[in-house]
Amino acid sequence: MLDFLQDNKKHTICLVGGGGKTTLLYELAAHFAAQGRRVLVLTSTHILQPDAALYAEKAEDARALWQRGRYAVIGTPEPASGKLTLPPAPLYAELWQQADIILCEADGAKRLPCKLPAAHEPVLLPECDIVLAVAGADALGRALGEVCFRFELAQGWLTEAASDVKVDAELLACLLTDERGARKNVGSRAYYVILNKCDTITEELAQKVRTALLGKGLAAERILLRGRKNN
């Protein structure tokens, strides 16, 4: 269990990376809503339209969802793509004041297990105090160019960052902990790494990733290895 899941404090949490980020976003929303917290979900970039029953067009819609023990998703519909973008600033400002937990998807990965941020990414909310970097364990053993969105940005700072280089524990740890990777713009915010789909790899390989992350200076309590059976 990650410490912020049970501390009953207000948090603004941004999720970055790939490998199940959106799924985790909604799992966290459901977890906090089940605790009786008022949960606000949004994106600072783009996210697929949620279930219409969870979408709040107006502040009163969000409050009604909270009263029913549900989380509320806000954003500006983009009909051409079927996605939501950043919500109107006045709506976000009003609901941020009233919410207990704010969850924001802060970049995209084109459904790939991992990614590197472009110059304009991630789009962390100014109020953000926690960043969750997400990746999929199914990236391991596969070619970097196959599993990493914008892999070409690794050239120049990762050794042998060619598209056909296989992703191992050390390389994945670099992508997740370097400030040119998933840790970009995190600064003094609390930073966690969540590796999804660990049931697709051996326990030995999962522990190699943990060891590599520890070797990069990440504290053990800031690392979560999880499989789909844990969902």
Give an overview of the whole structure.
This protein is of the alpha/beta class and 231 residues long. The protein contains 6 helices and 12 strands. α6 links the parallel β11 and β12 (223-225). It is globular, with a radius of gyration of 17 Å. The relative contact order is 0.17.
Q: Using only CA atoms, what is the Rg? A: 17 Å
Main sheet strand line-up: 4-2-7-1-9-11-12
Main pleated-sheet profile? 7 strands, parallel
Q: Whole-number average pLDDT? A: 93
Q: Helical percent range?
A: 25-40%
Distance between the termini: 13 Å
Structural class: alpha/beta
Written as H for each helix and E for each strand, in order along the chain, the element string is EHEEHEEEHEEEHEHEHE
Poorly predicted regions? none
Oligomer: single chain
Helices, by number, come to 6
Choose one word for the global shape: globular
Beta fraction: 15-25%
> How many beta-strand segments?
12
